[in-house]
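Design request, tokens follow.
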């Protein structure tokens, strides 16, 4: 079950739903933002993941008509997949979590999260970073143990909070807080001006092993747009529920 966004943010974003989000030029193991669930599962299979490892997790939004609680119809929230390989007495684990935009116009991939644990034969951090640069180009932002790319080039990093760059791993609430903050400070006028973010995290020791690697690709503008549209959708259902309850209410006996 999910909670509704604060009404102050809804007011801030009023009128912003008609703009298209930026499409990311990046992928993680063939998975790209904007994919449908079927396309995403096909990409996982192509990357060597067994469909038997897939789990589809549903979600609902809750609302209240003033007396009774209600929930929307269930929708696909995320797909998880895991691959395990035993090597030399140890185990290499690779897992994905794929988040999809909520209704009414959702159902497309807005966040790709990948975690790799390789304690057996990991490359060095320097080798891993070089491979990332070969694939994605020079990072837009480099921090200790973290590399970030923004797409399209020149778009606004809406996950910037003060002098700090927020992790791309924020759930939808964190994404909305970041985008809302940028609009409140008039850094942007519409979520479609935000960049999608790709982030890789690993050890900061260049000549050390990259035993654990975390990657996340987030469609910040697309997620913001879809989430805000979903709140209008839920609010319309709430208002309909209120009217239905009031139409059946008993009359006062004076």
């Amino acid at each position: 079950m999910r909670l509704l966004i604060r009404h102050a943010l809804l007011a801030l974003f009023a009128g912003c739903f008609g703009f298209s989000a930026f499409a990311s030029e990046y992928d993680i193991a063939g998975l790209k933002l904007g994919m449908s669930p079927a396309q995403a599962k096909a990409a996982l299979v192509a990357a060597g993941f067994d469909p038997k490892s897939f789990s589809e997790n549903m979600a609902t939004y809750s609302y209240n008509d003033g007396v009774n609680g209600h929930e929307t119809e269930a929708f696909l929230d995320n797909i998880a997949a895991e691959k395990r390989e035993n090597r030399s007495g140890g185990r290499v684990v690779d897992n994905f979590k794929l988040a999809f935009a909520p209704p009414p116009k959702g159902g497309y991939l807005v966040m790709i999260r990948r975690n790799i644990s390789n304690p057996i034969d990991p490359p060095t951090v320097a080798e891993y970073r070089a491979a990332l640069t070969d694939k994605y180009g020079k990072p837009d932002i480099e921090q200790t143990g973290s590399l970030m790319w923004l797409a399209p080039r020149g778009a606004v990093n809406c996950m910037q909070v003060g002098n700090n760059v927020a992790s791309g791993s924020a759930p939808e609430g964190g994404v909305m807080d970041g985008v809302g903050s940028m609009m409140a400070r008039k850094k942007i006028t519409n979520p479609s001006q935000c960049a999608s973010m790709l982030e890789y995290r690993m050890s900061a020791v260049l000549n050390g092993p990259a035993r654990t690697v975390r990657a996340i690709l987030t469609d910040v503008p697309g997620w913001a747009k879809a989430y805000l549209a979903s709140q209008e959708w839920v609010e319309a259902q709430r208002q309909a529920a209120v009217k239905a309850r009031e139409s059946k209410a008993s009359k006062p006996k004076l």
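Comment from the thread starter after seeing the answer: thanks! The longest strand covers residues 75-87.
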